[in-house]
Structures are given as C-alpha cells and as structure tokens.
Write a structure and sequence with these properties.
Distance between the termini of chain B: 11 Å
Order of helices and strands of chain A: EHHEHHHEHEE
Largest interface: A-B, 34 and 28 residues
Strand content of chain A: 15-25%
Radius of gyration of chain B: 16 Å
Oligomer: heterodimer
Helix content of chain B: 40-55%
Mean pLDDT of chain A: 86
Low-confidence stretches of chain B: none
C-alpha cells in the first residue's frame, strides 16, 4: 500500500481513449509507446500499462454500459466531453476496423501510484503511426 | 548523477552541468524510440525536474562566501542539512550540488510521481535513468 505523507489533496482522474496499431498486449503497448530495450523505462511505464489494462473497455462496451443510453460512439464521446477532432479521429479508426478503447485512470485507483497517478493530472494527446493516446479530458 | 531528498528538499548531485539548455536538448534515452510517447514524456519530466535548478556551490561562492567559513558550514547553517551530510557534500568537489524546485515546476512530478514516502521506487528508477544519461554525456 502506498501512503502519502505531507499535504494530501482530493483525488484526480482522467478519461482516456487509446488505440494501438497491433493487438493490445503488454509487449505491443510497450512497443507502441516507444520502449524498445530499456528495462528501467519498461518498469517505469509498466504501472501505466497495468492501469490501462485494468480499466479499459472497448468503446462500444463503454457506451453500452453508460446509463445515459447513447446511440453511437460519437455521441458517447461528446457526452464525455471530448472535442470534435477526437470524435472524427475515433470515427476514422472505426472505419479502419481499428480497435478503440475507452477508460479512466485515477489517483485512488487499484494501481494508483507511479505513472498512473502522474497521468491523472496531465492533459495530453499523443498520436503517431503506432498509437493514439488521448488523455485531454481530465479533472481534479 | 543522482537526485536525493534531504530535509524535504530535492537536490541533485551531478558531475555534469544540468543548468544548461544544451543538457536538455541533446538527451537521448537509451532503448527508447526517438519522438515516441515515452521519449516526449521523459523529456518533459526531465525539464520539470531540473528547470530553475540552483547550483548551490555557485550560490555560496557568489553571495555567502564571506558569511560562512566553508561550503560545509553553509550547507549546515543556511541549507539546514545535517552536519554529517553537510560535511560529506561540502567536501565533494567532483560533483555539483543543485537545489531543485519541483514544487514550482510541475505538480505531478513533485506530488504525484515522487510524493510517496513508503518506498523510493519511482525516485530510484529516475536515478537509474539519469545514470544512463550521465554515462552517455561523460
């Protein structure tokens, strides 16, 4: 268990959208984010992988499990506060039959330490040939 | 090259200058694809760790040399480090000592990445990564 000493604030969380070129696995995730041969970096980012793996859902499953009852992934994303550019990118991935995941990272989550907690307070969008990782929708 | 937490303040002991733009611009992380998510993330963390770092020995030489008998005394009396630590750091002339300002630079790096005290896993990992950078720069 991780224990905070010092000043403790309220928890933070961020929604994320993730799509990687290959099937989601630890090996492919590490490859997609750029870790090739560096064990320390792998350790450093493994916590992020574990948190994503535990909290991710296929975007359609996430949409269906939402109480609001959205009719499409686009509506769902708008409802979650993502912008039109993000909606358009996800739509394109769907047309390309690329798997898109939705989930949340939280500072008080199961893996709530290290890089998971770090990314809870960051607003980021990263996109290259290997990965689309959007964590722009965060809150304290 | 190592970051340590002493009396609630982060310091970096380094034999290369970290208060130099060139230091950030030329860092290459071993085994990491350049331009990748991790590459950019680590560059940001590195900047947030070392931005506004103050070279404590330079500060002593510039402003406090007349006031304190030695750099060790300055560390003990002004920086409020323990006597043993102040003596050890004060006599170390091969490495620069930097006072870091993580709390001014980035909330996440300070409070979220390094703010847990039950173990020092994240700090130890960062130190191992810094060691790799140092080996490259040597």
């Amino acid at each position: 268990m991780k224990i905070r000493s010092d000043f403790v604030t309220n928890s933070s969380s961020t929604s994320f959208i993730l799509s990687i070129k290959d099937k989601f696995s630890e090996e492919n995730f590490m490859k997609a984010i750029g870790v090739e041969e560096n064990e320390d970096m792998k350790d450093f980012f493994e916590n992020l992988f574990l948190a994503i793996d535990a909290n991710k859902q296929d975007i359609y499953e996430a949409m269906k499990s939402c109480e609001v009852g959205y009719g499409s992934a686009e509506e769902f994303l708008r409802g979650e506060g993502f912008d039109e550019e993000t909606v358009a990118i996800v739509k394109r991935f769907q047309q390309e039959n690329r798997k898109v995941y939705f989930g949340r990272l939280a500072s008080d989550g199961t893996h709530g330490f290290g890089m998971e907690v770090y990314f809870c307070g960051e607003s980021f969008v990263f996109c290259d040939d290997e990965i689309y990782f959007n964590g722009s929708n965060y809150g304290w | 090259m190592k970051i340590v937490l002493l009396k609630g303040t982060y310091y970096c002991m380094s034999s290369i200058r970290i208060d130099d733009k060139e230091f950030y611009q030329n860092v290459v992380f071993q085994g990491i694809r350049q331009g990748s998510f991790v590459d950019r993330c680590m560059h940001k963390i590195l900047r947030d760790l070392f931005r506004y770092a103050v070279n404590v020995r330079d500060e002593y030489e510039l402003y406090y040399r007349d006031e304190y008998d030695s750099f060790s005394d300055f560390l003990f009396q002004k920086e409020l480090l323990g006597r043993d630590i102040a003596d050890t750091l004060g006599k170390n002339v091969t490495e620069q000592l930097y006072r870091l300002y993580l709390d001014l630079n980035d909330y996440n790096t300070d409070n979220l990445l390094l703010g847990y005290e039950d173990d020092y896993n994240e700090l130890n990992r960062i130190n191992r990564i810094l060691e790799q950078i140092y080996e490259d720069k040597k």
